[in-house]
């Protein structure tokens, strides 16, 4: 996993992604334009247009960049062969979100809410989500094989964990209650113990 | 609970709320204007302006109208004194959402994503949420008193249930996977059994 992470992204493209991140933090999604991204970019605006025809195309690339960032973080943090520890690590990283910045989380919630209207976004979010489901489900599958977990449906467990992650993140962005994430962490732990862990 | 539900809403105001519902289904939030609501309203546009100065003010009233609809549904459905049955009923109604229309759920997700930018929306969503937390927590509290539930933190249980409800609804809107809601219903049931129910 992750061997091709970022391999197709040039230095310029990475700089454009970083400019997009800053622009989203500054002004959210609704007012985001190619110009506002260019304003955050050190080099010429024409370079942005050279790589991305439209704002949509750029944001699809940005969602892919976020997924790569997540996968890199997983690879860096996850040094365990134990499926339960590995599952814990994935949940921790998922709950902490792609970035700590609250403005960015707000912008991402907004972008996500546009997905039903914009097919390219919808496909990009679905592709990222399928990746997360597969990562979680593979870990659950490993645990079933080693006997650490019961014979549950791995994809379904992944879906349920992601329901809790998404709910916690959207509620904490909306209501600014940081306890929600900590409570959800414990609820997921309870779910893993009561539903997955063999012998508990 | 619910004695004052809708008591302050005139027939005209209710008709404006229904027009707002149709307009949101038709075009979502981003393109919603007082004019597009007026287009769905049988009477004169000036009547809308007489009751609501701005689109924001109208949508805050609309969120209150949705909460009243939810409370009316709870009152109509909930005929049990048993705290666990009552909790089940609340979860069922919450998961089924205010309206079945998918277009409407999409529009609500969009409106919700604007809450961090618009204080009036944020306050209205927070007020509705506080109402839901109180309803759930009161039911849990009743269950603790009767001995049906363990001595848990009622508000925290309410928060965790709402995390799962919000996550399931946003994921099912975004990915169109109807299994998510059914799976989440079972996950909440598992949570209630393992975390709340005494003797299980």
From TrEMBL, chains A, B:
Record bears the keyword Transcription: yes
GO molecular function, one term: transcription cis-regulatory region binding
Keywords, comma-separated and alphabetical: DNA-binding, Repressor, Transcription, Transcription regulation
Domain named HTH tetR-type: residues: 10-70
DNA-binding interval(s): 33-52
Domain of life: Archaea
One family name in Pfam for this protein: TetR_N
PANTHER family (alphabetical): HTH-TYPE TRANSCRIPTIONAL REGULATOR BETI, HTH-TYPE TRANSCRIPTIONAL REGULATOR RUTR
Protein name per UniProt: TetR family transcriptional regulator C-terminal domain-containing protein
Organism encoding this protein: Halarchaeum salinum
């Amino acid at each position: 996993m992750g061997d091709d992470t970022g391999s197709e992204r040039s230095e310029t493209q990475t700089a454009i992604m970083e400019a997009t991140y800053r622009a989203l933090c500054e002004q959210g999604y609704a007012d985001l334009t190619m110009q506002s991204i260019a304003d955050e970019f050190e080099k010429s605006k024409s370079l942005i247009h050279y790589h991305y025809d439209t704002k949509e195309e750029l944001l699809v690339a940005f969602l892919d960049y976020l997924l790569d960032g997540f996968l890199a973080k997983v690879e860096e943090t996850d040094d365990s062969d134990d499926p339960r520890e590995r599952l814990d690590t994935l949940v921790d990283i998922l709950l902490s979100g792609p970035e700590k910045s609250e403005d960015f989380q707000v912008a991402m919630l907004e972008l996500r809410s546009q997905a039903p209207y914009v097919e390219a976004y919808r496909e990009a979010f679905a592709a990222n989500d399928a990746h997360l489901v597969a990562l979680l489900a593979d870990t659950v599958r490993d645990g079933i094989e080693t006997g650490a977990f019961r014979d549950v449906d791995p994809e379904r467990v992944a879906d349920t964990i992601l329901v809790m992650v998404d709910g916690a993140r959207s509620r904490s962005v909306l209501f600014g209650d940081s306890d929600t994430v900590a409570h959800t962490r414990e609820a997921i732990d309870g779910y893993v113990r009561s539903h997955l862990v063999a012998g508990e």
